[in-house]
């Protein structure tokens, strides 16, 4: 069954390039991003894995662990790592799950047979410290992901988890945000001391509260 926002991210035990992973234990109290790629030794995947590795510091800065997955074997992952380092300039610095029996891919509905018969598509699951799924993204094999977009939505999720706000279209960290409709104007005056602008009663903008 498809995983929906707000569901508890299914737990599993799997082998990875960093040894056995018990997923919930591995996540600990941190945010987590589980993402799949279709296949080792393929071009788009090689660029993606290198880019996630190059930006790992940005995920660390957001208290977020990242972990990749495909239905390839551990031997395949280990052999491919050298190509990622060689061609993308950054060595793999996070675990890659070897899901050759498709346990995790099935649990997370990462195989979409009408797109790719037996391989995982480019799924992304962002999981909060409460182990609940906060955001999902799904891309076909032909479209590589954008790390800036993954970081952007992570910033929004982390901000909106802590404050009664939502982020508008094309929002990026540091831009004004929308005050939640559940907050009255009176409450907003104390909750958002930098002030707010009411463009409409339902559309009240305020400077990002954690900046
Ligand atoms: C790629 O990463 O380039 C790729 C992987 C699987 C199918 C097609 C393309």
How would you describe this protein?
- It is built from seven helices and eleven strands.
- Helix 2 packs across helix 4.
- The protein has a five-stranded mixed sheet. It has a four-stranded antiparallel sheet with strand order 8-9-11-10, with helices on one face.
- By secondary structure, the chain is an alpha+beta fold.
- Strand 4, helix 4 and strand 5 form a beta-alpha-beta unit.
- The chain starts with 12 loop residues before the first strand and ends in a 5-residue tail after the last strand.
- It folds into two domains: 132 residues, Glutaredoxin, CATH 3.40.30.10; 44 residues, Antioxidant, Horf6, Chain A, domain2 (Antioxidant, Horf6, Chain A, domain 2, 2-Layer Sandwich).
- The chain is 31% helix and 24% strand.
- The model has no long low-confidence stretch (mean pLDDT 98).
- It is elongated.
Task: Provide a quick synopsis of the model.
The protein is built from seven helices and eleven strands. With about 210 residues, the protein is of the alpha+beta class.
Number of helices: 7
Number of domains: 2
What structural class do you assign from the helix and strand content? alpha+beta
* Highest-level CATH class of the largest domain: Alpha Beta
> What separation lies between the terminal Cα atoms?
40 Å
